[in-house]
Amino acid sequence: MVYSLWTAAGGMSGQQLNIDSIANNLSNVNTIGYKKSRTDFQDLFYQTYKTAGTRSDLNSTYPVGIQVGGGSKPSSTQVLFAQGNLQKTGVKSDLCINGEGFFRVKMQDGSIAYTRDGSFKIDSEGYLVNSNGYYLDPPIQFDDDFIKESIKIMQNGDVYYKSSSMEKDDEFYLAGRILLTRFVNPAGLSRVGKNLYKQTSGSGNSFDGIASTLGYGSIQQGFLEMSNVQIVEELVSMIVAQRAYEFNSKAIQTTDSMLMTAVNIKR
């Protein structure tokens, strides 16, 4: 059996997935809170023609065997949760997490999703919502006569604001506290689009906690966490993947030429 055909074809398929992942990273270079993916590979089965340590004759053994691999396949697309750069915006409702943790939001179907995208807005009812209109969980709501420029969000997630009906200029209301969530294995979260993640059995248990305490990052007001994609790194990875794809294609062409030579021997 000519293994090189299957091996090279599998290599091309794997590198195509690798290119797809790199292209997705590049397309999200400006996505707030985006975390890059890395395609990991593992080798496949091996055909053993000679086992190391078996006898070569009566008084000696083979020090090295003969094994031919069956190629490789993608084993996972690992999400890398390295901290992205913090960009100052000055917008009172823009938040970022400096460290571990996710914001919790409640989707329209009542399920909970998690995000690192802190570009929150204030809707018509005074709720702090994400770009898709999903409420924070627990919700944060301001009074109708709140003063937007007075909003203060502390590093531990406490949200304060002033109201135009207040009698004292130095008086603040507490709107609530923004909690953070962390996971045993955040790489096991499932991406669902809209900068959101869903919990899976692979991500393990979730733990809600207060920002700036042990194990949780701090919340920074007026900043956004940008994508952690590095363009130069992605371009280098793309060139390597492209070359690997081309060389696997060349291996198929070479094998095909060898087979044609073998077929033509009889002629």
UniProtKB/TrEMBL annotation:
Residues 97-161 form the Flagellar hook protein FlgE/F/G-like D1 domain. It comes from the Bacteria. SUPFAM superfamilies: Flagellar hook protein flgE. GO terms for cellular component: bacterial-type flagellum basal body, distal rod. GO terms for biological process: bacterial-type flagellum-dependent swarming motility. Residues 220-265 form the Flagellar basal-body/hook protein C-terminal domain. The keyword Iron does not apply. Residues 7-35 form the Flagellar basal body rod protein N-terminal domain. Belongs to the flagella basal body rod proteins family. This is Flagellar basal-body rod protein FlgG. It comes from uncultured spirochete.
